[in-house]
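Bumping with the actual sequence this time:
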Amino acid sequence: MHYHAIDMRAGTWAALAVTTGLVGWASWVVLRPGPAAAPILVAHGPTTDAPAKSTPPPDRRPPPVEASKPVPPVPGLEQLPREIRLPPGPGGGAEIVLSRCDRDADCSAWERCNGGFCVDGEHNCEKDEQCGAFARCEQSTCLPGARTCGQGLACEDPDQFCMFGACVASAGECLLDPDCAEGRRCVFGRCVEGARDCLRDADCASGKRCLFNRCTEGTRECMVDRDCRGESRCEFGRCAAGTRECTVDRDCKGDSRCEIGRCLSGSRHCWKDGDCPDGSRCEVGACLTGVRECTGDAGCPAGKRCTLGRCAS
């Protein structure tokens, strides 16, 4: 017996994500509010962890919101098996397993039951105010970044549209993975190295998490800043040292710019490689000498990692 969900793998991931909420924030996109030309920031691994302290500070995370409450049934869902296995897409990658659920407790850590399937993000909010600073509530989970649209707010730039409470650029080189070459995947309008091999952390081996639809070293520690203890913030699913200072350049004072939640000295020179002179690339808002070799580890030979756009041992 065949299921429509299996056919979706090849060409309509976006529809699957919208109708069931299967694609979680950490596994799908990073949205940077601001100019339409803002780039996608693809990380190859965790940022620096917050230093260990002898006496842990209080946990800032509130309890899950009605975590054990059954989720309203989706008509026809009961006819599907408890697990639906999606074969690799046209660009390659690993098999993806979709897990059906009746309540949040049926899902793994950092997940909730949404539309009858386990998806990234705990059920921990009903309104933005419950998510703390620099975060918003969408589909009952806190997402990083303050709200820039939705709930009565419209995007000011006509070239942007609203996605999960953030204004994002509508232009791009791809919409779905099949729009990209073999061995590449579509991450928010850009084709990047590496075929899609996960939708959620549970698709990855022990000790890894799903980041931009690739299994990445390091288990998940957080979804938003509120999940981290003490003087730390959440970056790419890991707690990094230092509280968040900004989300966009205008949050910083004087001649500085916002990169990965902190204000860096020096004004921004670029958003993307095309803003830099020939023979250079854009990294953390500055033009660096040398053309880009990679955007992630998947773009480098075995045994090397992508560091600031270059493959290094």
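The tokens above came from a reply further down the thread. The first strand starts at residue 83 and ends at 86.
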